[in-house]
Predict the structure.
Amino acid sequence: MEYAQLGHSGIEVSHICIGGMSFGEPDATNHEWTIGPEGTEAVIRRAFEGGINYIDSANCYSRGTSEEYIGRALKKIGIPRDEVVLQSKVFFNEGGLSKAAIGREIDGTLGRLGTDYLDVYMIHRFDYDTPVEETMEALDGLVRAGKVRAIGASEMFAYQLHNMQVVAERNGWAKFTNMQCHYNLLYREPEREVIPVCRQFDMALTPYSPLASGHLTREAWDADSLRSRTDLVMADKYDRAKSLDTPIIERVARLARDRGVPMAQVAIAWHLNKGVESPTLGFSKPARVDDAIAAVGIRLSKEEMEYLEEPYVAHELVGPIARPGEKLIAGTFRPETKEEA
């Protein structure tokens, strides 16, 4: 395994982050495909044996049971607390990013994970209802209190990220150290503005959906899996751009055949060769952890990178939340599924 600095935090993370959305009690409304406590333990055990030290979750994943399963697995395996980087998120809860909500939700997260501090606490989306100053001061308070070592941000518009960082800078508060945005070979819109702002503020990139919800792991668009049949968020994110994305998938498949590796390894290697510090990957079984670890050692040539990227055209926006009462120029999440990242 290889490691990277998580922005300006001084925290060292593996080049692969375990995404906690795959863990937890199945939710019949959308998350029917999650794995239970034993499966969570098996994945985390294999990951740590392979050198992965970074785990991400959120208070809303499977109604908090994702955090519970992660905490239980770490305790059962016996992984020392200082050898794991734990990250979770706040927003899709009562009160959004208000001071009261942040104070309440961090305690819930810590309790479910079975720890007295988080390495990284991330805001899950931008909150239009709470002043930026209130949110950033509340997060800074958690750092000063020792409940959080560093703070991060997830999906939002570049101007929102910039404004929040500037507010923190002006007041001497903690600034975001990493960004978990929607980013992969099929969706590269963050390259326009979000990633440049991240680099301006020395933020690491820890994107979600690096395999495009499985579309970059197989040549066929559709798959006969429980997730493919039931994950409404996946369909909302990708189905409308199928015609744009198919040529890219075909190139990933060709390059994978040429190299004699699975498509997933090529897609992950693309992230790391782009300078992404730690793509966030969900694993449903230990064997998929092995694929991700193997991808870390793949070096793509300049010609291979250009080959994979050349067919890309601009996509509709998927991830940021529109201002209340307005619609994005492009797509956004449906209200009934917006809590899923």
Summary: Residues 330-341 have pLDDT under 50 and may be disordered. Residues 242-259 form the longest helix (18 residues). The longest strand covers residues 148-154. Strands lie at 3-5, 12-14, 17-19, 54-56, 85-90, 118-123, 148-154, 176-180, 204-205, 280-281.
